[in-house]
Design goal:
By secondary structure, this protein is an alpha/beta fold. The protein has a single domain, classed as 3-Layer(aba) Sandwich (Rossmann fold), CATH 3.40.50. The longest helix is centred in the N-terminal third of the chain and has 12 residues. The chain is globular and about 45 Å long.
Length: 193
């Protein structure tokens, strides 16, 4: 049974921080593969800065061209909205019965896990791999020594898609923050200006 880590995000745009985390997880844990799951635009939320699903998906695909064990997934694009992680995991479990799906999340998300829809079911059936993030607040007591939650000593990457979008709008050089192919895509499509 292969072990796949699901790394969810809007990836708006995908940046080297995302890739550093995904690569660290696949190289330094027992996960066989990482699927970067591009989350769809929530139709109930107005977010002008969020690029169309297919553009964000295309950027993740081109960012991952050189990585054999990390792939892009659009699984949530075809699921009912809003997409809840518990439903996505159930869908993937039915579709790929011989795969053990795990969640990858930053420590900031772990702090709010108790507010997720059916988080108990997620923890009953799936392992969670947590990477460190600089964030406020405390991890809930019930998650501190949970047998299904594994802290991975990944690098702390302080790069944010929000800051990248602001920098592009302000005509700043963001070349070190995204792969050259992703920058070419953003630049040619004139995104975030």
């Amino acid at each position: 049974m292969s072990k796949v880590g699901l790394y969810f995000g809007s990836f708006n745009p995908v940046h080297i921080g995302h890739i550093i985390i995904a690569n660290h997880m696949v190289e330094h844990s027992d996960l066989d593969e990482i699927w970067m799951v591009v989350t769809p635009h929530n139709p109930h939320k107005k977010k002008a800065s969020l690029l169309a699903n297919h553009h964000r998906l295309a950027m993740v695909e081109i960012a991952l061209e050189d990585y054999d064990n990390i792939q892009c997934s659009s699984v949530e694009f075809n699921l009912p909205q809003p997409s809840y992680t518990v439903n996505t995991l159930a869908h993937l479990g039915e579709k790929y019965p011989n795969t053990d799906f795990c969640l990858i999340m930053g420590e900031d998300n772990l702090k709010s896990l108790h507010r997720w829809k059916n988080y108990e079911i997620i923890l009953e059936n799936h392992h969670v791999y947590v990477y460190p993030r600089m964030s406020e607040g405390l991890v809930e007591h019930q998650f501190k020594n949970h047998p299904k939650i594994h802290k991975v000593n990944a690098p702390i990457v302080q790069i944010s898609s929000t800051e990248i979008r602001k920098s592009i709008a302000a005509n700043k050089n963001i070349l070190p923050l995204v792969t050259p192919a992703v920058w070419k895509y953003i630049d040619e499509m004139n995104f975030y200006r």
